[in-house]
Amino acid sequence: MSFSASVLTLYPEMFPGALGLSLAGRALEAGTWELEAIQIRDFASDRHRTVDDTPAGGGAGMVMRADVLAKAIDHASPPGDPRPRLLMSPRGKPLTQSRVRELAAGPGVVIVCGRFEGVDQRVIDARGLEEVSVGDFILSGGEPAALVLLDAVVRLLPGVMGNAVSGDEESFENGLLEHPHYTRPQEFEGRQIPEVLTSGNHKKIAAWRRAESEKLTRERRPDLLAAQPLAK
Ligand code: SAH
Question: Record's NCBIfam families (predicted)?
Fold first, then answer.
């Protein structure tokens, strides 16, 4: 069975978007994963197909209605659907590579994309939505965040990446940032490829890469080192 993504959005035209190209696009065509973009507005019941309303308690902006969203979620993910239900949200747990791996190992995802000021808290609670953030900044909607999450997940699905090994050595996979890369030409504007990399000594190369990884991580992301007890 292929990985199945259902995305609830006011802008279904944004999908597959970037995921229709390159690795993800080929995998989509090959049926390695499937994507359904559902128009939330189709579940509004009034003549104007209203999906939002003013915030209770006052304030700026609009809030997505719980009743409309719940109908859309129940359509996309009826009781018994084993897929986790995510809500893209800057208040969510920051997305990590380990969560991406978990999702890729599962049956799929149901993703709710917020717009406006966000969604009524009651539908988050009533439908058990897991809030997921893609970073400490505010997007205008959940769609780009959903594309980011799906891109990260889809590339891990079996058969999607040509060279499966490259997945394991990447940044975050071992709690470190990746070492720098080089390729031909040997000299670029007076800069040489580090000698060790052309030495043919695989042990030395591995040690050099490990040392560079640790140095970069210490400089840029000391929080990653702090998170793993053995790496001091
Ligand atoms: N008023 C909200 C922000 C709303 S932004 C707040 O201050 O928390 C509108 C929608 O964009 C959100 O409902 C969410 O779905 C999406 N979004 C914005 N930033 C995001 C982020 N960093 N990660 C994931 N989704 C985000």
Answer: PRK00026.1, trmD
Domain spans in the chain, listed from the N-terminal domain onward: 3-154, 169-232
Residue range 33-50, pLDDT digits in tens: 999 999 999 999 999 999
The model's pLDDT over 187-205, given as tens digits with 9 standing for 90+, comes to 999 999 999 999 999 999 9
Topology of the domain covering 3-154: Alpha/beta knot (3.40.1280)
Q: Is 128 annotated as a binding residue?
A: no
| pTM across the whole model | 0.95
Residue 4, Cα to own-chain centre: how many angstroms? 15
The pLDDT value recorded for residue 163 is 67
Q: Which CATH superfamily is domain 169-232 in?
A: tRNA(m1g37)methyltransferase, domain 2 (1.10.1270.20)
Say if residue 147 is exposed, middle or buried (CB neighbours under 10 Å; 0-12, 13-18, 19+).
buried
Q: Which ranges of the chain have pLDDT less than 50?
A: 231-232
CA of residue 207 to ligand 1 center, whole Å: 42
Residue 118 near residue 64 (C-beta atoms within 8 A): yes
CA-nearest residue, atom 26 of ligand 1: 89
d(CA 201, CA 206): 9
